[in-house]
Amino acid sequence: MVRLLVVLAALCAASPAAAQCRLALILALDVSSSVDGREDRLQRDGLAGALLSPEIVAAFLETPETPVALAVYEWSGRYQQHRILDWTVMDSRAAILGAAEAIGGSTRSFSEFPTAVGYAIGHAATVFRDGPDCLFRTLDLSGDGVNNEGFGPLLAYRHFPLDDVTVNGLAIGGAAQGDKDLFEFFRNDVIKGPGAFVEIARNYDDFERAMRRKLLRELRARVIGELDGADTRG
Fold first, then answer.
1. Phi then psi for 170, rounded to 5 degrees?
2. Strand intervals (E) in the chain
3. Fewest CB within a 10 Å sphere: which of 39, 123, 140, 225?
4. pTM listed for this prediction
5. Of the candidates 109, 178, 118, 112, which has an alpha carbon nearest to the alpha carbon of residue 143?
6. Which of the 8 DSSP states describes residue 82?
């Protein structure tokens, strides 16, 4: 109830256009060359399954008068970004089911390109430009590797209009001993904004669980305490 009151108070102070939705959420999926066909399918099916889990459906529909708008794209090299799901207002079970079916039924557009994280983040600015004017905006970027093509995330934040966007990360494999650099990269270079955090999937088999956990944190009503800074605990 306290969280709901905080959101309603913020909406009352917002412009009428912004008050139409509480969150514009983009999910960005890694389809770089380090992701094989099985892992790509686990990613798509895992996201679709997470969206249909009862707790996520309930979180989407928590405040039906101020719904969440969702868009999804895949990314890899400098110019390899492809929209999987256009902006969809997740204001009903039918809308959520439709989004899950679109994601689960999609196939990757690219498979042989490197990991251009900065370009993937910069692309979000274009997607947000095409989306609704919600109270909050969040980019949720998943990946299994550090930037190895083109400019990095920090340069992207300097040159793209993402100042009011919170960026969270899902580091796939970031819990393994050999992948500490991946977690550090997400923590130090990728995440940005109030309450930003890194979620960890042990591997692609763990992707759905990690995505479900991350979505719960992103969809809950925001509280004033989250404005203090970034939370990097996975």
1. -120, 105
2. 23-30, 68-75, 81-89, 136-143, 165-172, 198-201
3. 225
4. 0.87
5. 118
6. E
Tokens of 170: 């899902």
b (16+ CB within 10 A) / e for 87-120: bbbbbeeebbeebbeebbebebebeebbbbbbbb
Q: Which of 42, 34, 24 is closest to 85 using CA atoms?
A: 24
Query: Which amino acid, residue 29?
Result: L
Query: Which residue, 192, 211, 189, is CA-closest to 200?
Result: 211
CA 90 and chain centroid, separation:
15
Mind giving me the DSSP string for 10-56?
HHHHS-TTGGG-SEEEEEEEE-STTS-HHHHHHHHHHHHHHHHSHHH
Number of CB atoms found within 10 A of residue 37's CB: 10
Q: Is the pLDDT of residue 73 over 90?
A: yes
Q: Do the beta carbons of residue 74 and residue 82 sit within 8 Å? A: yes
Q: CB neighbours of 178 closer than 8 A, spacing ≥ 6? A: none
Question: Cα–Cα–Cα angle for 205, 176, 51, nearest 5°?
Answer: 35
- Reported residue count of the chain is 234
What's the pLDDT score for residue 20?
A: 82
Assigned CATH class of 2-9+22-224: alpha beta
Dump pLDDT digits (tens) for 207-219.
Answer: 999 999 999 999 9
Helix, strand, coil percentages in the chain from 3-state DSSP, rounded to 5 = 45, 20, 35
